[in-house]
Design brief:
alpha+beta, 6-stranded antiparallel beta sheet, about 25% helix, globular, 8-stranded antiparallel beta sheet, about 325 residues
Length: about 325
């Protein structure tokens, strides 16, 4: 699904949404996010975000939470798939190769489905700027949000703050946007103040009945030609935080029409990373696809709550 608009229209529309959803971040956490057993549970792996466990090893970070362990608890729910899939973390099933993008081809894909009633809310830039967003301030933040340091939510916050503070890879620019305004600022800085944009998302046309199932390509994928792209991925936090980044070259973007084996219909946004030579060898995509860094493109579908920005080419 795409929308072609000017920056002025985007900002006005998103601000309307922002104020409609806006509330106190502290109250949102007490009422909603604390009810979630673990906000990282079931979260889809994103190959573009560094692996937390590897960061802990490389940077001596005091992080013990293993998201992979959480995902394993969901494996029993997908016994209808082949046995080799049962032994693999189901949320890893978002990866495929560019050769798979053929009409009629079936790809096993996992789509996470969060409960809107317990999902974090957007907050305004003014409120976001009033709350520290730093790993060094984590003890203060846990007290601010009335969270125990041993709680799953505390581990999720530690995860997000750590990812956001990691230095970007060579050729990459990144920002963790704590408000819609800051996300737009980053897009403007990347594409240019006067550039019109296209916003791409994954749209579920019919309600999914199973997180993991085989999806068939119903039409020839439509490639979106763009000199640059920004991927914005939601991160576990008491309020909405987007991990936004842009990588120079080496990406091919597609709009993909998918039909699930249980009748689901998805108009998906997918990306193929053509150069993975600088990726962490422990990235789950390499395990799933049985390849090594730099040997073949890695493709994946963006979850429905992610946003992909590209400049509109006239």
């Amino acid at each position: 699904m795409s929308v072609d608009v000017s920056w002025r229209i985007i900002l006005c529309a998103l601000l309307v949404l922002l104020f409609a959803e806006d509330s106190s971040a502290r109250e949102i956490t007490r009422i909603r996010w604390k009810e979630v057993e673990d906000d990282t549970k079931g979260q889809q792996h994103n190959p573009e975000i560094p692996d937390l466990q590897q960061l802990s090893k490389d940077n001596h970070l005091p992080i013990k939470h293993n998201i992979d362990d959480d995902h394993q608890k969901h494996a029993h729910a997908h016994a209808h798939l082949s046995s080799h899939m049962d032994h693999m973390d189901p949320s890893d099933k978002i990866f495929f190769t560019i050769k798979d993008l053929k009409v009629g081809n079936a790809i096993p894909i996992y789509f996470s489905h969060g409960d809107p009633s317990t999902s974090p809310h957007l907050i305004s830039r003014e409120e976001a700027n009033s709350i520290p967003f730093s790993l060094a301030k984590l003890p203060y933040l846990l007290e601010f949000f009335s969270l125990s340091k041993e709680s799953p939510q505390a581990k999720a916050m530690e995860y997000t703050l750590t990812q956001c503070e990691v230095e970007p890879m060579e050729g990459e620019t990144k920002l963790c946007a704590t408000s819609l305004e800051s996300m737009l600022d980053f897009a403007q800085a990347t594409f240019g103040m006067d550039t019109q944009v296209k916003a791409l998302t994954t749209n579920h046309l019919r309600k999914s009945v199973a997180p993991l199932q085989n999806y068939t390509l119903l039409e020839e994928p439509k490639e979106i030609l763009a000199p640059k792209m920004i991927g914005c991925h939601t991160m576990p936090y008491p309020y909405v935080v987007y991990y936004c980044h842009s990588q120079e070259g080496g990406n091919r973007l597609f709009e993909i029409s998918l039909g699930g084996e249980h009748g689901d219909r998805v108009q998906a946004t997918g990306v193929c990373h053509m150069d993975t030579s600088k990726w962490d060898p422990d990235n789950p995509s390499f395990r799933v696809l049985k390849i090594k860094p730099g040997t073949a493109p890695v493709c994946h579908i963006f979850p429905a709550d992610n946003i992909v920005w590209v400049p509109l080419i006239s």
